[in-house]
Amino acid sequence: MKTKALDEVSAVRALAALAQAQRLRTFRALVVAGPDGLTPGAIAEQLEVAPSALSFHLKELAHSGLVSSEPRGRNLIYRANFEQMNALLGYMTEHCCQGEACAAADTASCAAC
């Protein structure tokens, strides 16, 4: 499956959202949770953060497109947007080897370029 291309504005927005420790930890927790996602309460408990602070961070991550939310009963379920995450990774590594596209298997060699 081909990942959608990310433009520079979207890449900057996503990177800015991740450039804060609590948001980065929140995003990583959602990545680990996979497609089942997590409720804000579960995230707050897991990361030992106040729910009010977490709400702000989830809003910023959602604005960047890195997470989505869906109502389920009385709760919201937050999920990592893996398509957006992969698009960001693709944007960052698009020309990593002196302008040559790198295959996924060549990731280690890209780091050495």
Throw out a few tags for this protein:
mainly alpha, Arc Repressor Mutant, subunit A, two-stranded antiparallel ribbon, 2 strands, 56% helix, 6 helices, elongated, disordered C terminus, 113 residues, 11% strand, single chain
Give a structural overview:
The protein is mainly α. The protein has a single domain (8-112), classed as Winged helix-like DNA-binding domain superfamily/Winged helix DNA-binding domain (Arc Repressor Mutant, subunit A, Orthogonal Bundle). It is 56% helix and 11% strand. Strands 1-2 form a two-stranded antiparallel sheet. β1 (67-72) and β2 form a beta hairpin. The longest helix is centred in the first third of the chain and has 13 residues, at 21-33. Residues 106-113 have low confidence and may be disordered.
